[in-house]
Amino acid sequence: MATRRYLDQRLRLNLLRAVDAIETHRSLLKASAALGLSQPALSKNLQELEETLQLRVFERHSRGVTPTHAGAAVIGAARRILAELRRLDEELDLLSRPGGGTVALGALPVAAAGVLPGVLTLLKVSHPDLSVRLHQGRTEELLPLLASGEIDLIVGRLYAPPMPDGFEREALWTEPISILARKEHPLFAVGRVTIDELRRYDLVLPTVTQRVGQEIEMLLAALGLAPTASLRSSSYGFIREMLHGTDLISIMPRLMMAGDLVRGTLGIVPLPIAAPDRQAGLIMPRGRSLPPAGQAFVCCLRSYVADLAERGIADTITGGNSVRTRSNRTTPRGPN
């Protein structure tokens, strides 16, 4: 008969924080620095945890640590417990400070750079006491955080899962791969932009995740544009400066530069071929309601996306269908 561990009586929260940090950094040295502990103190915590659990949580090796099979279960439980305590902390804050609260967001890179600044500006104006905790990453990095409750929802490009999972996906807008250029670019003076016209201008391309990069390469190939001589950069600031200051053009998800499109300093060059829609929106766990702060964020997101559609920058999605607003506008108008 297995010996009872009495974890509800013996397991201390600092041990859960320790195992979470060690898994995150895969190094006792880095985890101890993140927690503000000495490495011997963290090693002692890990030893206490493993003695309490009566199992090994991590395997040590020369390059750091990796969780054991049992350790993976412990790490998942630790993160769920810590997430629930954070949620309780936020709910208590909300009770003591009506109108406050915290929303924990997961954001894919394109959404974080393009859509979120405008949404969070609206949120700050309409709910000044709300706090935002932002995690940026790829879908496969954010889904475990969503499952454990560390984040409330994910915003960004929606990819079909390889198999059914426990998440709800709601498409709100499309963010097709587009050609962007400064508002005064000679291409906007051309009656009908052809592929030959596009070939006259050099490219500055973003260094993005593999999936987005493949979609950009597919459009380049369809247009017959050679990317070999292009500038490439992972800095959105650098790309913005090159677009605003030169006749370079860029190919990227158009909402990566949503702020500049709204301000009217950049424009969307009409494509001579059709580009596939790229649906984006929300990923949320089934059976777990959003906290009030999360609901306020979603409300502001819908409002901001509707404004982008009104300006001709994005297409909204209603009931699974893309809704085009003023689709004949090729250059978005600036703010009112």
CATH domain class of the largest domain = Alpha Beta
Largest sheet: 7 strands, mixed
**Strand pairing plus helix content: what structural class?**
alpha+beta
Nearest-angstrom radius of gyration? 24 Å
Return the string of H and E elements.
Answer: HHHHEEHEHHEHEEEHEHEHEHEEHEE
Q: What are the segments in which pLDDT stays under 50 over at least 5 consecutive residues?
A: 322-336
Overall shape: it is: elongated
Average pLDDT, all residues: 85
- How many beta-strand segments? 14
For this structure, the CATH topology of the largest domain is: D-Maltodextrin-Binding Protein, domain 2
> What is the H level of CATH, i.e. the homologous superfamily of the largest domain?
Periplasmic binding protein-like II
- Strands ordered across the widest β-sheet: 4-3-5-12-6-13-14
Please bin the fraction of helical residues: 40-55%
Total helices: the number is 13
The end-to-end span amounts to 73 Å
Specify the CATH architecture of the largest domain.
3-Layer(aba) Sandwich
Short description:
By secondary structure, the protein is an alpha+beta fold.
Polypeptide structure, described:
It is built from 13 helices and 14 strands. The termini are far apart. Helix 2 crosses helix 3, helix 2 packs across helix 4 (39-53) and helix 3 (28-35) crosses helix 4. The longest helix has 28 residues, at 69-96. It is α+β, with helices and mostly antiparallel strands and 336 residues long. The radius of gyration is 24 Å and the shape is elongated. The chain folds into three domains: 9-79, Winged helix-like DNA-binding domain superfamily/Winged helix DNA-binding domain (Arc Repressor Mutant, subunit A), CATH 1.10.10.10; 97-174 and 279-323, D-Maltodextrin-Binding Protein, domain 2, CATH 3.40.190.10; 177-269, D-Maltodextrin-Binding Protein, domain 2.
